[in-house]
Amino acid sequence: QVQLVESGGGLVQAGGSLRLSCAASGLIFNAGTFSWYRQAPGKQREWVATITINGLPHYQDSVKGRFTISRDNAKNTVYLQMANLKPEDTATYSCNFLYLGDNYWGQGTQVTVSL
Question: What is the pLDDT of residue 97?
């Protein structure tokens, strides 16, 4: 059974940093692509970042230069390091694993950025 468990969210002031973690189990960790998505209240879920099987990162334009996605294949964990956070980054952040056309999701972790 695939499980993705996010952690690391919280309340931070604008300009601050947080590191989100996504611990994965029940899957072949290095065989799929991991992504982070976020959903703010009243808005649709949006893609934030992806890291490929080969470790190549891709980012939404609004987070480029501020967020860094990484994966540790030995720990079966994916990270999203977030810096220079802005109030508009406030959302529930969810981890996604894509493998052979199937999507798996975590429950999400809340990030709130205050002024």
Answer: 96
